[in-house]
Structures are given as C-alpha cells and as structure tokens.
Specification:
Length: about 160
Amino acid sequence: MASTEVTGAVEREVRIAAPPETVFRFFTEPELMLRWKGIAATLDPQPGGTYRVDINGRDVARGEYVEVTPPSRVVFTWGWEGEDRAVAPGASTIEVTLTPDGEGTIVRLAHRDLPHDAREPHARGWSHFLDRLAIAAAGGDPGPDPWAAPSDEQE
C-alpha cells in the first residue's frame, strides 16, 4: 500500500497461510516475535503493558500496548529509544487487524502519526518484517534476518 500525507500513516497488507489465532500470537509472545523480528523482546500484551523489541542490538522499538483483542486486533504505541531519533518512544501508533480469509489471515497494519521524513524508512521496514512474518506464522523459517546486524540503514 502507500503512506498517506494527511494522516502520517504507513499502511501495509499481507495474506498469511495461517489462522488469525496463530498469527495473533506472533504480535504478543516474545519467542514468536523473535522468529520474524528482533533479537530480544519484552512484551506484556495488555493495555498499558510494555512493547519493547531490540531489532539489531542498536535499534530498539519501544511503546506500550493500547488494545489487545484476541485474535483480531492489536494496537500499540511505537518509537525508537535513544537520542536524536525521528520517532520517540510512544510517539506513533500501530494498529494491526487480523481478518480470516479462508484458512488464512489478512493482516492489515497501519502505522500512524509518523513524521514525514520517517514514513519511507518505516514503510520499508514494515514491508521487510511482514514478509518475514508471513513465512514464520505459516510455519516456515524466514532464515537469518539481514537487518539483525547493527546498521545505519534503518530509522
């Protein structure tokens, strides 16, 4: 999909060959999160609970869960730990909806409230990670994440 100038949103959609009940757990259970994104995760999937994922030893996404509705919806805030980051922890919001599609699931992700300069790198990031999620949640192995090594490429 595309980023939207008016809302500051990045939107992505992917179909996963697994039911929503399975896919949902990849957004709420640390060991499943790490199959598709990050090298360490602290997740407390309840309103006000911690969302913290160390992507690569340098880039750490942090926020908190806002809404957790199994198996159809997860909403959490998002930003990057550290100084001089375009998006501070909790400054943006990610809404994930999971819709049954036959034996699979349509995952729709909307990342809202992003500054203009942060939209393109986040769009690239979500495309990268949702492709990995589609493999992992369907029972496959997406292999080592090429982004797991610290780099200056991701924002």
